[in-house]
Amino acid sequence: MKKPSAHDDSPLSKPPGARPASSVIVDRETVELKRLEKRIGKIHLRQRLGIEADHATQVFGHGRTFFHIENWYSIHSLIRLGLRCLGLYRRGIRNATAIQIRHNEVIVPNLPDALHDFTLLHLSDLHLDMDSGYPTALIERLRQVRYDVCVMTGDFRAKTHGPHEAAIEALAQVRPHLRGPIYAILGNHDSIRMVPGIEALGIGVLLNESAILERGGAFIHLAGIDDPHFFQVDNFEKAAQNIPPEAIAILLSHSPEPYRLAAHTGFDLMLSGHTHGGQICLPGGVALMTNADCPRRFCRGAWRYHHMQGYTSLGSGSSVVGVRFNCPPEITLHHLRARPAQ
């Protein structure tokens, strides 16, 4: 924090008794963090803030994977330079804003009639402050879809540390184009300090918490865990504590990595992101890197583990370098049905 100068403290520079703007901001953040502490518990908040401070830019070690390419900023420039030399950079930039609309059918045999074709819009890995064109491209696609509830599986910010105001401002541009209830979780790029700003936009953030979705007197329990990839502050016991054993339950997890825990907790569906499907892939969508400590079959698209169905979004935005090859960005509509559509 900048130390006020003598001129800043002079009677002529501000009204008597006025406090520096920085103090007001700090006090507001302190109040917001106190509210979060009361809501999610002192331990969770202290762990999240502590790990953010200690390891935000760590390239090797910590988390579920040893190597964190998103934190290695010097290599980002080398990747861009290499793509420019190959004449591929501009094409990759265009690909990154060519967002596709994907549909995924989820068969839930015990689904009540009132919930037939209940549709969730799934947005993930927005990284909205990565490029000024991202919000506009996303808004264009959002105008073309219909759904009941919107869920967002983390990574609103491009970098993994530092200021987050630009990401919140970009999200504020998108928010008027989202309808119905909206729920989100945090990713490994997001600070828990972003929660008040996100929720001020009318987006509920689930921090190892759950909510109830209702239509026609029937219910779906929606749970969200905090980032399981880098921060590893996911808590299934807290997230599922208010969900009845036989209820239809959906889990939001930034990464698909804790798929085993999710299945054995009793969730019917797990929605994730984080991997970007590889983002830069060989022809056929073969990922060069997934950045996730789990089998590749869980790292893109629809999958199943025991009774639980899952879907890992390719992401709506891009990370590290704002390009895509053989792996287009997406927004996904998950249609819940008791039986396959005819």
Automatic annotation (TrEMBL):
<keyword id="KW-0479">Metal-binding</keyword>
<protein>
    <submittedName>
        <fullName>Metallophosphoesterase</fullName>
    </submittedName>
</protein>
<feature type="compositionally biased region" description="Basic and acidic residues">
    <location>
        <begin position="1"/>
        <end position="11"/>
    </location>
</feature>
<dbReference type="Pfam" id="PF00149">
    <property type="entry name" value="Metallophos"/>
</dbReference>
<dbReference type="InterPro" id="IPR029052">
    <property type="entry name" value="Metallo-depent_PP-like"/>
</dbReference>
<dbReference type="InterPro" id="IPR051158">
    <property type="entry name" value="Metallophosphoesterase_sf"/>
</dbReference>
<keyword id="KW-0378">Hydrolase</keyword>
<feature type="region of interest" description="Disordered">
    <location>
        <begin position="1"/>
        <end position="22"/>
    </location>
</feature>
<feature type="domain" description="Calcineurin-like phosphoesterase">
    <location>
        <begin position="119"/>
        <end position="277"/>
    </location>
</feature>
<dbReference type="InterPro" id="IPR004843">
    <property type="entry name" value="Calcineurin-like_PHP"/>
</dbReference>
